[in-house]
Amino acid sequence: MRLDKYLWAVRLYKTRSLAADACQNGRVKLTADGRELKPAHDVKIGERFSLNIDQLHKEIEVLALPPNRVGAPLVQGFMIDRTPPEEYERIQMARQYAFEKRDRGAGRPTKRERREIEEFKYK
Q1: Are 43 and 2 in contact (CB under 8 A)?
Q2: What does the DSSP assignment read for 1-65?
Q3: What is the pLDDT of residue 123?
Q4: b/e per residue, 1-13, with b = 16+ CB within 10 A?
Q5: Does residue 13 contact residue 7 with C-beta atoms inside 8 Å?
Q6: Which domains does the chain have, with CATH numbers?
């Protein structure tokens, strides 16, 4: 089975073309030797991959090859998620601190306030 099709079938990417783009852009690597993989790489049972999905660095191990795209509850039969729990905690913390909170009734920020918020967040 092709790598892009496998990543799509186990629901790591929403579309097969997104999975192929991730492979072509070097976001999918073989864990054993760290080499970047192409979308047409032949997936074998027991292989481990590391992939970057947005800010999450995920590591998976292939258990079986699905015949087609599988439902979310069945994904565990085809792969093991070897991502360290600290990675999920890091993403959760980043989501908490990326959220802005305004006082109730304060309304939308003015143009000046919005610029100050963006300057504080991104610099």
Answers
A1: yes
A2: -BHHHHHHHTTSSSSHHHHHHHHHTT-EEETTT--B--TT-B--TT-EEEEEETTEEEEEEE---
A3: 66
A4: ebbbbbbbbbbbb
A5: yes
A6: 3-122 (3.10.290.10)
CA distances to 38, 67, 111, 113 from 100, rounded to whole Å, are 39, 44, 16, 12
**For each of the chain's 123 residues, which pLDDT tens digit applies?**
999 999 999 999 999 999 999 999 999 999 989 999 999 999 999 999 999 998 889 999 999 999 999 999 999 999 999 999 999 998 888 777 767 777 888 888 899 998 988 888 776
Count of residues in the chain: 123
Q: Which residues contact 102 (CB under 8 A, 6 or more apart)?
A: 109
What is the rounded distance in angstroms from the CA atom of residue 23 to the CA atom of residue 38? 5
- 8 A C-beta contact, residue 6 and residue 68: no
Listed in sequence order, the residues at least 6 apart from 122 whose beta carbon sits closer than 8 Å to its beta carbon are none
